[in-house]
Amino acid sequence: MSLIEQARAIYQEIEAMPVGNKEQLEQFRIRFIGRKGAVEALFEGLKDVAKDDRRAVGQELNTLKNFAHDRFVVFQGQLESADGGVAAPVDLTLPVFPHQLGSIHPLTLARAKIIEIFERMGFSVADGPEIESDWYNFTALNFPENHPAREMQDTFFVEKHPEDGTQDMLLRTHTSNVQIRLMQQQKPPFRAIMPGRVYRNEAISARAHCFFHQVEGLYVDKNVSFKDLKDTLYHFSKEMFSQDVKIRLRPSFFPFTEPSAEIDIWLGTDTEETYRLSKGTGWVEIAGSGMVDPNVLANCGIDPEEYTGFAFGMGVERIAQLRYGVRDLRLYSENDVRFLRQFEGI
Ligand code: DAH
């Protein structure tokens, strides 16, 4: 048990200890106030705490010590006033112990790490709306009208406003809409990532959720090649997972890229967990990617003869799952402190 955990246990013990007469008051004093008491004993352990943490842990122990002392004074006063003496006043401004500071959510941690890695490669961060028109989410990304590709992503449609029902609105199914907004608003070259929340009409399970997070990436310039795509995502994978990570690019299809590839990383099948995650193949997908389709560039007013580019979209839940060993996607949104507390200090 860490010192803080021991302190918490003693705190609870103090709260639970009944003091109704002089003998109990004396026992309380010996156990929690005395030089050989449980609280003093914790201070002994301070020398074994890592140097960086010592100050913070020491403060917590002092809070506990003051708490025990103040409680003692209150009990003493109560007994004295029962004897006809004067009660010690209760100080309602005393700090509460223990302080619960909370921790950073694993998805926030993973997103921050993704941003950090790409920023070091010269990518900036862009943002776009979650409630989006059909045009930005699908049409501009080269999804043909009434084509089954639109059903690849089970969409939540937003009801048309009775007076302003001119555009079909929906909850974006991916962050790729921000590529379009960025390319429309600015002039090439583009080198940006676009983190955000996306929505799909899926039943919630250990593996799927109706909302999740993606980070989109876009790099458009003169002479951007498929090799640039591969180098960038390989570098990313090394920084995110480990320097000896193995990745593979598996041919795939997306309406907005040609050619398209899914990026897998090698987990192996040594453990039950890696076997399950990789469905027995040893490989697990972390992103979709490809060379931006010339139609998409043209839809944004960029000359595909002059510019080329690559794009990718990665799932933040998946990346956090691999980095932190999260077993069930539902944990991310249930706010169970037993889960969240495991990310304290990471
Ligand atoms: N939008 C795709 C999805 O949600 C992911 C994706 C694939 C994004 C390829 C891209 C890309 O930018 O080039 O499944």
Q: What would you note in describing this structure?
A:
The structure is a single chain. This protein has 346 residues and is of the alpha+beta class. It has 2 domains: 3-82, no CATH class; 106-343, Bira Bifunctional Protein, Domain 2 (BirA Bifunctional Protein, domain 2). Helix content is 40%, strand content 19%. It is built from 13 helices and 10 strands. It has helices spanning 3-16, 22-33, 38-44, 51-82, 106-120, 134-137, 176-185, 226-240, 272-277, 294-299, 316-324, 331-334, 337-340; strands at residues 124-125, 131-133, 157-158, 169-171, 190-199, 211-221, 247-254, 257-266, 283-292, 308-315. The strands form 2 sheets. The protein has a 7-stranded mixed β-sheet, sandwiched between helices. It has a 3-stranded antiparallel β-sheet with strand order 2-4-3. Helix 2 packs antiparallel against helix 4 and helix 3 (38-44) packs antiparallel against helix 4. The longest helix is centred in the first third of the chain and has 32 residues, at 51-82. The model has no long low-confidence stretch (mean pLDDT 91). 3,4-dihydroxyphenylalanine is lined by residues 174, 176, 216, 254, 257, 288-290, 311-313.
